[in-house]
Amino acid sequence: MAVLLTGATGYLGSYVAAELLADHHEHLALLIRAESIEAAKRRLWRALQLHMDFAQFHDYLQRIDLYIGDITQARLGLKTVEWDRLVETTESVIHAAAAVNRISTRLCF
Q1: Contacts of 51-60 spanning 24+ positions with Cβ under 8 A
Q2: How far apart (Å, rounded) are the C-alpha atoms in residues 96 and 94?
Q3: pLDDT in tens, 56-107
Q4: Per-residue pLDDT for 4 more than 90?
Q5: CA pseudo-torsion sign 51, 52, 54, 58
Q6: How far apart are the first and last CA of the chain?
Q7: 6, 72, 86, 101: least surrounded by Cβ within 10 Å?
Q8: What is the pLDDT of residue 106?
Q9: To the nearest 10°, the Cα dihedral for 30, 63, 17, 37?
Q10: Which pLDDT score is estimated for 105?
C-alpha cells in the first residue's frame, strides 16, 4: 500500500519525500499541481535535486505514482478513475502542502 504525500514540491514536503523514498520500499503517491505528468516530474525533480542525484531520482520514479490535482478541489481535483485508484491503493496520508503568501501585511496606525 502506498503513502499519499501532498506538498512534495515544497520545502518541507521535499524533505519528507526524499526520506520516504530512501527509507521505505513501498510506493509513494504524490499529489502535484501541474499541467501534465511531464510538468509534474520537472517540478518534482526541481524540489528533490537538493536531496539526490538525477540517476537516483530516475530510479525512484518507478516507485512514485503521480497524481495531477489540487488540494483545494473536491476529491483533490482528480477524475473518478484516478480518485478510486488512489483510495484503493493508499494506506496513509501525509499532508505537507500549504498555501504560502510571502507578502506580509502590516497594520499601520
Answers
A1: 51/14, 51/15, 51/18, 52/18, 52/21, 60/21
A2: 6
A3: 999 999 999 999 999 999 999 999 999 999 999 999 999 999 876 666 555 4
A4: yes
A5: negative
A6: 55
A7: 101
A8: 52
A9: -40
A10: 53
Hey, what's the cell of 7?
506538498
Q: Number of C-alpha atoms within 13 angstroms, CB side, residue 9?
A: 20
Which residues are CB-neighbours of 21 under 8 A, at least 6 positions away? 28, 52, 60, 63, 64
Place of cell 495531477: 68
Percent of the chain whose predicted confidence (pLDDT) is above 70: 91
Q: Annotate 31-41 with b (16+ C-beta within 10 A) or e (fewer).
A: bbbbeeeeebb
Hey, what amino acid is at 19?
A: E
Residues in the chain, overall count: 109
